[in-house]
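Re: your question about Serine aminopeptidase S33 domain-containing protein

S., sorry for the slow reply, the queue was backed up all week. Below is exactly what I fed in.
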Amino acid sequence: MVRENINFESGGQRCEGWLYRPTSPPPHPCVVLAHGIGGIRSAALPDFAIRFAAVGIAALTFDYRHLGTSAGEPRGLIDIRRQRADDRAAISLVRRFSGIDHDRIALWGTSFGGGHVLATAGRDHDIAAAIIQNPFVDGRAAAAAAIRYARRRHGYRMAWRGIRDNLRARCGREPLRIELAGAPGSMSMLTTPDAAAGFASIMPADPVGWEPTIPARIVLQMRADRPARRANLVSCPLLVSVCDGDAIAPPQPAIEVAKHAPRGELQRYPIGHFDLFNEPWIDRVVNDQIAFLRRTLLQPHTEQR
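Result:
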């Protein structure tokens, strides 16, 4: 496996990433990996990309604008429309790479990135396959689930903070920030009991570009984001990896996605949101995903030859 530094433009700004190339002879299929909310490419994604490359599948990881080492101000900004534009720019990039089979591009998304993948695959019917794991696919369901860990009053306070941050942005002022993850009841984006410890568990020793606080305006976008409603538009094979004990991304909407996607497949694990990034579950999850990618990306190519 060889890791290359890459960069590309999205919305007039630079995104930086890594391309993991297999050592086997090209052309290779390629998986574009989309991280969860606030995620940076050095957190958890290499564990998947390296394993994909080891079986002959190239993998691209990158930082969204405003995050990690990519450009963009204010730092830590999370904007659904911009991030999905970044996903499309990354796909366009790998379709231009030498040594990559442009007809065998797959998407992979975790948590918030799972919703991005679902939305993107529903628009781009040249995608060969897609994987979403512990996916955030229904903002309304996630908001309802969050009430179990914080009083309804907390939701109103967070929404008001988001409104104030939007107003500050229009006036050119510094963002009003919130913690990305914190204890139940705190003024944080994610307040489930496992949120803060879960983020800590996936961080590398030197998380370059990690932003523990984010502009509050994303709160106003999340409830309205419901990519699960368009699962029927995803024409490629779709693997949905669900954590039955997920307190952050409710599992039932993801299970419904697997049912309504024309070529959906469902894998369920009796674990929480962050458990699939760590031993012993990561081995099982990655092996299931590799088996899916072999069937959808590698075997059809071998049979054609």
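Residues 242 and 268 are 5 Å apart (CA to CA). Residues 2-142+226-304 form a domain with the Rossmann fold fold (CATH 3.40.50.1820).

Happy to talk it through on Thursday.
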